[in-house]
Amino acid sequence: MNRPFAPITPVATDADSLPALRIVTCGAVDDGKSTLIGRLLHEQDLIFDDQRAALVRDSASRGAAGDEPDYALLLDGLAAEREQGITIDVAYRSFATARRAFVVADAPGHAQYTRNMATAASTADLAVLLVDARKGLRPQTRRHAIIASLFGLRHIVLAVNKIDLVDFNQTVFDDIARAFGDFGRSLGFAAIHAIPLSARHGDNVSSSSLRLPWYRGPTLLDHLETVAVDDVRADRPFRLPVQWINRADADFRGAAGTVAQGRVRLGDPVAVLPSGLTATVARIVGGNGDLIEAQAGDAITLVLGDAVDVGRGDMLSATRDRPPVADQFAAHLVWLSDEPLYPGRSYLMKINHNTVPATVTELKYRIDIDTLARLAAKTLAANEIGVGNLSIARPVAFDAYADNRDTGAFILIDRASNDTVAAGMIDFALRRATNIHRHDQTVSPAARTALMGHKPAVLWFTGLPASGKSTLANRIEAALHARGVHTLLLDGDNIRHGLNKDLGFTESDRVENIRRAGEVAKLMTEAGLIVLCAFISPFAAERRMVRDLIGNTAFIEIFVDTPLAECIARDPKGLYRRAQAGEIKNFTGVDQPYEPPRQPDLHLSTAGTDVDTLTARVVAELERRGLFTTD
Q1: Which of 55, 279, 457, 587 is the most exposed place for a label (fewest CB within 10 A)?
Q2: DSSP 3-state assignment of 504?
Q3: What is the Cα–Cα distance from 149 to 137, expressed in whole angstroms?
Q4: CATH architecture of the domain with residue range 15-226
Q5: Residue 87 in contact with residue 94, Cβ under 8 Å?
Q6: Termini Cα distance of the chain
């Protein structure tokens, strides 16, 4: 029977010419990743005597290999890992053989730790993807293969492990190798090499196994020692994302960072992006003094001979081959959070030492990890992978991830929890809006405000359904109107009859509902109005988004705090009753959560307080803020 992959014959190579190889071991849980690395370290005699003694002791008390050493314990350093027999964190091990140096990352297999695998893959050159010969390809196997491809890995070793538990059966190996070949062919790997092995017993790890006479290829170590993974970054156009401005003394100012690709020499012209200004390199300062030249991977400080403005987050590049600069782009996303992705929600993006507000404006599709099919989706759940369009608050310089893994990668951060929610890889810039420019208006917002006799503001009323938001907003608008104040009331129900009639009540639709309402409120403040917005707005992230849009001074968050029991008792529209009967889905307070403001500008408790008293409190707060007098 022909094997689906021809073995790679080791090539006689000068070991000194091969760079250190960064490897990530990945695959589904219990497929033997930690055991494989531990066995490799053992066979290369890279375990110290005290580590060996601890291994024997720990194997006897909590090992999973019977009377034999459990080599996985060499990698599982956390107490929880040893107790549960799983990998949670990424464990890194460095070692060298006579032919090559290695840095190996042992990535966890559990789905909930996908973010750790993505972190390990982002800096690797090659992936060793383990498969349990008894179980074949599993969803996490495919997910890790897709992530490896997305993060730019082009070399895959398919390690079909535990081959001893299927009696060293060639047919089992061939079937698994062929299935992965069919799956991985469209992922863009330059080479897929399949090796049957037993990590526990050492078959085909460092030495060929007599129990696998049908396999004529190299051992795992032979392959890793000879595989050529070219680093072509130094041959590409110069890029240096500026990490910080080095002011060693009053007379020294330089742009510090690590060269992401290319070379730079004294006297070279460079472009400063996104401004587009150009300058000449006057000095290149390395860790041990001045240099004539620096290349990809070097940490340096560039002193420019021209007085141009350079700051953290800028990018220095070759003048004739510049990276794209844009505020919109398409990207692949690996979603890492238990909280789903909501298009329209504001996140923070970290990219090339910039931190900027970012929004997924459109989720184009989700990738089915079993078939690689593109599935229509409105959101991404934890560990799902998709493609979408993103918009950021200001233009930044970047490369497509396929061209540069350093300058084309980003992460998204939740603005409330500060948790990393996604890893992203830029596909290309979106340039469809480059013909749209802001029109300069003769009459400015300040001029409109001067005619009003009061300052503009947004009064944002939030609370549970039937808490009294609309009733209170109506009463306050009447009080302001009586004082000659120019107002506009945006009510959550009314706006859904027109502007937002196409939106439902799913979480993603609620996010878009508030985004649109916030944009309208902003336009009305530019007209000089005080805008009263009565929306449930159940999510803190969207209320924060509107605050950022309007500005902290003009945005006043008013929490209408009415206990749920009282809201249900009022139920003027009968909505709670219908929601509890299952007739209405996604109803806040019943089957959808409400996130109360932690620090609202005004906290109005309605229990035992009449509307007139609450109205007076709000008007008094506006007076205290000076909204009724213009500067």
Answers
A1: 587
A2: coil
A3: 17
A4: 3-Layer(aba) Sandwich (3.40)
A5: no
A6: 87
Burial class (CB in 10 A: 0-12, 13-18, 19+), 242: buried
What's the CATH number of domain 233-318, 3.40.50.170, 2.40.37.10, 3.30.1120.10, 2.40.30.10? 2.40.30.10
341 vs 119: CA distance, rounded Å: 20
* Phi, psi for 42 (deg, rounded to 5): -65, -45
- Whether 75 contacts 86, CB under 8 Å: no
Contact 614, 474 (CB under 8 A): no
User: Which residues neighbour 63 within 8 Å (Cβ) at sequence distance 6 or greater?
Assistant: 69, 70, 73
Distance CA 15, CA 19 (A): 9
Q: CB of 536 within 8 A of CB of 464?
A: yes
Picking from 329, 328, 320, 266, the residue whose alpha carbon sits closest to that of residue 293 is 266
**581 CB contacts (<8 Å, ≥6 apart)?**
none
CA-angle at 474, arms to 468 and 475, nearest 5°: 90
* Structural element, H or E, at residue 52: helix 49-62
pTM (whole model) above 0.85:
no
* Sign for the pseudo-dihedral over CA of 119, 120, 126, 127: negative
Written as six digits, the tokens of 368 are 């089915």
Query: Given this model, what pLDDT does residue 583 score?
Result: 84
Q: Where in the chain is the domain with CATH 2.40.30.10?
A: 233-318, 325-429
- Rounded CA-CA distance 422/411 in Å is 6
Identify each DSSP E strand in 162-286 by its residue range: 191-196, 239-241, 244-246, 254-258, 263-265, 269-273, 277-286
Residues 6+ apart with CB under 8 A from 290: 283, 284
Cα–Cα distance, 120 to 116 (Å, whole number): 6
Going across the sheet that includes 487-491, the strands are 487-491, 530-534, 457-462, 555-561, 602-605
Closest CA to 461 of 446, 474, 443, 444: 474
Give the CA diameter of the chain. 95
- What residue has token string 């008293």? 613
Question: Per-residue pLDDT for 3 more than 80?
Answer: no
DSSP type of residue 15: G
The sign of the CA dihedral 379, 381, 386, 388 is: positive
Least confident of 215-224, 286-295, 410-419, 572-581: 572-581
| Tens digits of residue pLDDT in 152-161 | 898 999 999 9
The CATH fold of domain 325-429: Elongation Factor Tu (Ef-tu); domain 3 (2.40.30)
Tokens at 130, concatenated: 């383990």
How far apart CA 554 and CA 547 sit, in angstroms, is 8
- What is the C-alpha to C-alpha distance for residues 198 and 84, in angstroms, rounded to an integer? 22
Q: Quick one: three-class SS letters along 449-463?
A: HHHHCCCCEEEEEEC
Where residue 86 falls among pLDDT bands split at 50, 70, 90? very low
3-state secondary structure string across 133-192:
CCCCCCHHHHHHHHHHHHCCCCEEEEEEECHHHHCCCHHHHHHHHHHHHHHHHHHCCCEE
Model pLDDT, residue 184: 87
Q: Tell me: domain 447-624, CATH 2.40.160.50, correct?
A: no
pLDDT tier at 61 (50, 70, 90 boundaries)?
Answer: low
